[in-house]
Amino acid sequence: MRYFITLSYDGTAYHGWQVQPNGASVQEELQRGLSLLLRRDVPVTGAGRTDTGVHARMMVAHFDANENIDTQQLTYKLNRLLHGDIAIQDIRNVPDDWHARFSATSRTYHYYIYMRKSPFERHYACYIPYPLDFAKMNEAARLLLDYDDFGAFCKSHTDVKTTLCKVTAAEWHQTSATTWYFEITANRFLRNMVRAVVGTLIEVGRGRLSVDDFRRVVEGKRRSDAGESMPGNALFLERIEY
User: Cβ contacts of residue 198 below 8 Å, gap of 6+?
Assistant: First the structure.
């Protein structure tokens, strides 16, 4: 039988979702907790990866079991066992052919920025101390919907088989006089893609790149032409659709 786990986590203390040889990961902590409670090794498969320091309001993972599981009890016990920076929202039985990664139809990320120095924003948003032209940034962001190859925003020297993605939403939203977030939805994402997209859009907002320059960056498919990768602490995996 297959079970889906829906969870959230603060990624500050972790080297991303995926098990790492020399650092704590969310996947490792979840597997350790399940293995302890179910008294056997329990590998879990996640809907995707998040990088070091990146957070998730919603992550989905699956594991298999031969026995019927009281999912409410397991949720309760797992939440008591795990650190406070990981929370299990739901565990449910699903059809055996459901897959946390391959059955997902879309993922949505938010990247948060703030433009007036604040001690309360700094852990979960990126401080931008200069003015930005958000109208130009949104004009450039809309271009992402016209393309399907995002090699310009893929981390260099990775073993990715394809740089093709289908972006269905990309827009900056204002939440207060000094805070904004960038929302992007796609069927899949490349490593470092969202932070590289944000870094390049900020170059547009500063006037260092024009909207046409942004288009040329996308069409050129060279990571060296795009902007810097923004800090991971301001990035949240917001939701996954199935």
Answer: 111, 182, 227, 230
Helices (H), the chain: 26-38, 71-81, 134-142, 193-205, 211-220
Mean pLDDT by 10 residues, the chain (242 residues): 98 96 95 97 96 97 95 98 97 97 98 97 97 98 98 82 96 97 97 97 98 98 96 98 98
Among all chains, which residue has been given the structure tokens 């008591």?
Answer: 80
What is the pTM for the complete model shown? Answer: 0.95
Task: Tell me what pLDDT residue 22 has.
Answer: 87
At 61, is the secondary structure helix, strand, or coil?
Answer: strand
Pairing of strands 106-114, 235-241: antiparallel
Nearest to residue 26, comparing CAs of 9, 42, 6? 9
133 in active site: no
Backbone angles phi, psi at 118, to 5 degrees: -150, 130
- Which pLDDT belongs to residue 157? 65
Catalytic residue among 41, 51, 70, 97: 51
Summary count for the chain: helices (H), strands (E): 5, 9
- 62 bridge partner residues: 4, 45
CA distance 171 to 23: 34
Cβ neighbours around 160 below 10 Å, total: 11
**192: which 2 tokens?**
């470092």
